[in-house]
Amino acid sequence: MPAENLTRAEARDRAATVTTHTYDVTLDLTTGPTTFSSRTVLRFSAIPGSSTFVDLIAPTVHEITLNGSALDPAQVFAESRIQLDGLAAENELVVVADCAYMNTGEGLHRFVDPVDDEVYLYSQFEVADSRRVFAVFEQPDLKAAFTFTVTAPAHWVVVSNYPQVGDPVPVPDGVNRNGGRDEGTATWTFETTPLLSSYVTAVVAGPYHHEHGSLTSSDGREIPLGVYCRGSLAQYLDTDEILDVTRRGFAFYEEKFAAPYPFAKYDQLFVPEFNAGAMENAGAVTFLEGYVFRSKVPEATVERRAVTILHELAHMWFGDLVTMRWWDDLWLNESFAEYASTLATAQATRWTNAWTTFSSLEKSWAYRQDQLPSTHPIVADMRDLEDVEVNFDGITYAKGASVLKQLVAWVGQDEFFAGVQAYFAKHAWGNTELRDLLTELEATSGRDLSPWSALWLEKAGVTLLRPSIEVDTHGIVTSFAILQEVPAEHPVQRPHRIAVGGYDLVDGRLVRTQRAELDIDGPRTEVPAFLGNQRPLLVLVNDDDLAYAKIRLDELSLSAAIEHLSDFDDSLPRTIIWAAAWDATRDGETPGRDYVDLILGNLAHETDSTVVLVLLRQLTTTLDLYVAPEHREATALAAADRLLELARGAAAGSDLQLQLVKGFAARATTAEHLDAVADLLDGRTSFEGLTIDTDLRWELLTALVAGGRADETQIAAQLADDPTATGERAAATARAAIPTPAAKSAAWAAAVESDLPNAIQVATIAGLTRVRDRGLLLPFVGPYFDALTTVWEDKTNEIAQNVVVGLYPTTLADDERADVLAHTDAWLESHVDAPPALRRLVIESRDGVRRALAAQEADRRRA
Prior knowledge:
By secondary structure, the chain is of the alpha+beta class. About 40% of the residues lie in helices and about 20% in strands. α18 runs antiparallel to α19 (about 695-705).
């Protein structure tokens, strides 16, 4: 990977040397299965006599021609760069190469559908992988107009950023060597795009099923809408709902941004083996194929798809129309899209509790990331591409969005969007930095945002807010203050706009009876609004979740919350309390077993699907890592018993029932629990309203495999019934979960040493690390650390990160035989010159072990 790196300094120098104009990219996708033909004609201006380089990653370069003169590829092409010297004022570069299909979800990914052996391709270029498909100045501030021409099997569908010009033209005597049901080929030509950064260009090709609609934009244009998926998934594609969310998003954003949709069409393509949730390619957004639901999923997943649709749509303006100059401002793209999509979901769709979801899911991600040793300011210091690759994190997305929400509350929503409108109008089709946005927001709000930016965007860390309350003998509040604690590593006192809520029992329900909204700053801020009043039963700092800060409850409020958590009328305050309790558990202030009891005592009353999803994840983490080892087995068994009891008592066919069954299966370890799983799988028992569909069947089977109650015979039989890509991934997980040394060794070799496709690798890692007997993982501690540098050097970024993060031995945190901390420290001390991005991932994983040991000690001290 170092040979494919690009530094910020190099990018700045190149941008000062050249100005790009156009790319004509011609791809021949009929030459598989390992490579395809790529021809790039790049036109650009330059300082006469200057030198620069063009980016390209390709196994073979056939031709390089600069301004009509042939250059010897052996002399000017090395690793990932083509050196260009003696540039003219205006230049034309022609590069002909064989580029490689990828199976890592980067560049041009190639997938063969096991159902019908059809080939599907899609591009994924962020951060810097357009250079795997064509020769390019691979940096966001060298925008250009792109024209794509693609030759492919005639029965395929080919999609790019802009509409195709006419019908595909058959290629006489064309030969298709890339798979497919016929040998005919055709050529698609697409309209030239407006100015785009290369990372948001796209080519998607294959026999995709497609459905269409349209809408009228605010400037009167008819915008074609397309929804695509693999042919074998067509029966599950719910186009009507996808387009309904899309249309609502268009109307919301065009009104809020006072700018019509900037492109000519809007296609949404659900593609196989995608690494992320989605990618904002201009006019051709790609999505994780798991968002085509072939089985029943929790409502949380359906809502997450809607938020993702709206997130990518927001990027059409913020990211594609106006783009960051360099990746330091990646947060501007992602935080804005995260904030805008949550706002749009709450105000324009049926998911009106979207801010509860945001608080439960996104902000917990941000708080976790912001407490790692690697925490960084929202405006990060992106020295090179490797820094960028590991920075798609909870700070870039969720903390940034939380801080934007605070900013909106401070300057006013109307003033905020007025500034955004001016920003789009001034910088359309260009590149910007943070100051460009702040300038417009200052003009519309009348506030100087420099101090706010310095504290919130340019410094790291999260503060903690605690209430300090005193009452007299009659329960009247005599003193009320909010204390702000700062972490020693990042001692920054920040101003907050917060609400403080007072809740009392009214007819058996916790109802807010007092509320004060105020600005706080410094270590202590008085709250006069509560003075002289009867102390509420429960006091909630950061009511309405306006601030980005960890909170604690005072002792009386905590007791009331534990007793009456299910009695809130509104889901948001309940979620804030859940978050405070979880954070206290992670910080080692509250015993892990107390948090387990809190979840199991209140989960049945939780009404928000995403909150249930998050709580079940936190339950797993607490049981596996935060409960003291001597209490772990008994606590885990009791938790599984309780989950089964709750599942049996849940409403028939409910979202809660489905999630509880999945949660129980994941925790099933005893003979009795595994009997219950087997009975469900085989139909000997049933829960009213619960359908054991294909995906749930795989989850139940994998639980039996991990428990030693099923083996390869049952896995193979299930795969024969479900011979799909999803089935293959599920089978990979199940095989890796077989609790034998041989199965674990095979899974390790497959995940680390072979070239598995990205999705199969992730599935294999998930199964490998799923164990009842943790001793099965001990043989891999040494090999893990031995493999780190080789994996980082030899694998692509996505595949390497899967290994570095997914196989770190956190599960063995407290096992003296593994001594994970000592192994980690020894590796860090002996690899001080390892790539900073790799060291960051290892240091972050180490912190998880440190935190687990501290939490276990707190649980050990439980009364």
